[in-house]
Amino acid sequence: MLIQCTKKLLEELKIEPVLVNTSEPALFSWHANLITVNRKKTVVLVNDSNHYVIVLYGIQARNFKNLDELIIFSIRETLLAECMKPELVENFTQHSPVVTYAKTKDRSSVAKMNKACEMVYWHADELQSNMVIQSSVNRRVSTHLVGIGKGAYKHPNECLYKDLENFTGTSIFDCQAVELMITLELTDYKVWRKVVVPLHFTFLQLHHILQILFTWQDCHLHDFNVIDKDKAITNIVCGEDAFEYPKDIPMIKEADCKLSEYIPKYLTIQYTYDFGDEWRHWIEVGNVIESYPHNYSVCVEGEGNAPPEDVGGEPGYYDFLEIIADPKHPDHKEMINWSQMQGYQDFNIELINHKLKGYGNL
Fold first, then answer.
1. Peptide bond before residue 97 is cis, with ω within 30 degrees of 0
2. Average pLDDT value over all residues in the chain
3. CB 234 within 8 Å of CB 249
4. Do 72 and 152 sit in the same domain of this protein?
5. How many domains does the chain have?
6. What span, in angstroms and rounded, lies between the C-alpha atoms of 264 and 288?
7. Which residues span the domain enclosing 55?
8. Is 304 left (phi over 0), alpha (psi -120 to 50) or beta?
9. Nearest in space to 79 (alpha carbons), one of 152, 126, 138
């Protein structure tokens, strides 16, 4: 791998750069910068071919001594987290296993790298404080559009997929997935979705998928409960604050917990969103798909419109439905306008799947 570094990073590494190896393919060449995020030293790498981003966070002096291994390891872990075939990942990382450091190539490459650094700052609150490898943020940052000149733009992650398909000459994705049937608990109205989700996703990723499926806007707290024999046995929470209110069952952070740790062993999960309105979703586990050819979720079918944010729970939702169904109601127009601001919309499986694919497996 050719790592073309800024002056600041070269000084931190205390090495003399080599002359740029112009024979190194762009797919195995990266531009790298050293920045400070949340008062921690952070290395940001941007691929020369597709502009995919790799972040090494909280780098300490001992880490700089083995930066070569960290770069290769981070690339490997991120590609595996992208649902790529392990043999492809191994072939890619071993194709150019020796890391060589050089100066940056040109202003255009530096500009794209600086733009990537801006996006890392934008996602600073998503960086895991106890981890150098940031696979989730790598994937998240790499979904943002980047300019490639003359008004054209591209998604780095999609360009990476094409590069690797060309590199390997075959499909690149393969993972286990599971069918989930998700029903919003309502007395007089049906709202449900059936979706296929890769099993190596975390519960945090499942939360984001559920937000898309039900057109929520991620404005409130949430949690998951793993159910066994009609009893909650594990509480999977969204943040550290939840541990200030301990329960009599184990509590785990959603970002640290993969679906495969509980599915398909347990067949029912409860997801609660917004502890004020208290929207309870029942997740029933269906078939396991052994060879799933995507790295994103797909909504298979569904029914009903999810309530808008802050509608006032189930009673408020029924009042809302009554008002918007009656053009003569004095609050009809105001309620329609309010619901649009709250993201309320008809169930649209094509739009949902477009968003799920764009979200990828972040």
1. no
2. 93
3. yes
4. yes
5. 2
6. 8
7. 2-168
8. left
9. 138
**Which of 124, 150, 168 corresponds to the end of one domain?**
168
pLDDT digits (tens, 9 = 90+) for 246-263: 999 999 999 889 999 999
pLDDT digit string, tens, across residues 172-222: 998 999 999 999 999 999 999 999 999 999 999 999 999 999 999 999 999
Residues 95 and 1: beta-carbon distance below 8 Å: no
